């Protein structure tokens, strides 16, 4: 199917605005080519499994990806018998500097007899942090908030530190440093199904919630909105996309560095009650990763906006297989200009797609394949190399 036909078939929720067709490429819009390659191609993507399905951890979910201070890429997720089981622990895999394939996942934290999850990686200066929850009772409404630290780019980790002992708030979406120097860490209330944000002190010892310490004051939708995927559009002007039970992605904005937020309203994009990922690129454009459906999680799409999220002019599917699950995307852009997508693959393995902005504009879908075989879009064609051409470079 041609790229034009692929784009023509993309629709949103019935009755909502339709997606706009892809715009032509311009020289200024071209992102960096994969480093270390002499080819003249521009559109590039490569998808690979972090690990094959492993009987030691048959159920996996909730990706987070971050660049460590030493340049390694770190990929965290939780795994065990199934979500919420007592044997669920937090695992991490590494794509070392100079490598093309990920290391075998290893446990970096496990609370004996209690499931951990919803971990978010964050690197700040020479330190790396893992923000996460441990279920203390029956389900996510009875989970607390904690962190562990690493001073050696994820090789070893500290004992856990408590952020919030009270149950019901969770992490789940990407932190970032705002233009005023403060770090914004999105959170949400599993008990009220509302969205909030922490601003920690520089040493991450004190955490102040916003818009207030009472989650009854947090933005939500008629049926509940959580997991705010947040970016800074302009200094102090923040935009967050929210997962909802309302069959649509909702949005809320802040104009004072996250202290106050507007009432949440629908965006026109569909939502299937699953997490989305939103990322501001170095050139100011936005990339969105989401399931473009209102039921199921069997398609995972990337979309590009050049006007701060008002319209999404280009899109491409990185997975699509009726009845399968591809969910909980997480996005990161590295210093080489490449964009990294991490997500759950069928609850059996965790996957990674490295791509550039031109790949989203090209609209060439990646075919789904349950096998742990790399799929690469390069020089305008799809291939199945033994390893991706992309090689992780240092900062």
Descriptive report:
With 395 residues, the protein is mainly beta. 3% of the residues lie in helices and 43% in strands. It has 2 helices and 27 strands. The chain has a 6-stranded antiparallel sheet with strand order 23-24-25-1-26-27. Strands 10, 11, 12, 13 and 14 form a 5-stranded antiparallel sheet that branches. Strands 2-3-4-5 form a 4-stranded antiparallel sheet, with no helix packed on it. A hairpin with a 5-residue loop joins β23 (326-333) and β24 (339-345). The longest helix is centred in the N-terminal third of the chain and has 6 residues, at 3-8. It starts with a helix and ends in a 12-residue tail after the last strand. The model is unreliable at 1-40 (pLDDT under 50).
Brief overview:
By secondary structure, this protein is mostly beta strands. The protein has 2 helices and 27 strands.
Strand content: 35-45%
Largest sheet: 6 strands, antiparallel
User: Helix and strand string, N-terminal first?
Assistant: HEEEEEEEEEEEEEEEEEEEEEEEEEHEE
Please state the structural category.
mainly beta
What is the end-to-end distance? 38 Å
| Rg, Cα atoms, Å | 20 Å
In which range does the helix fraction lie?
under 10%
What spatial order of strands do you see in the largest sheet? Answer: 23-24-25-1-26-27
Contiguous uncertain segments of 5+ residues:
1-40
Helices, by number, come to: 2
Mean model confidence by pLDDT: 90
Tell me the total number of β-strands: 27
Using the alpha-carbon principal axes, give the shape: globular
For this entry, what is the oligomeric state of its chains? Answer: single chain
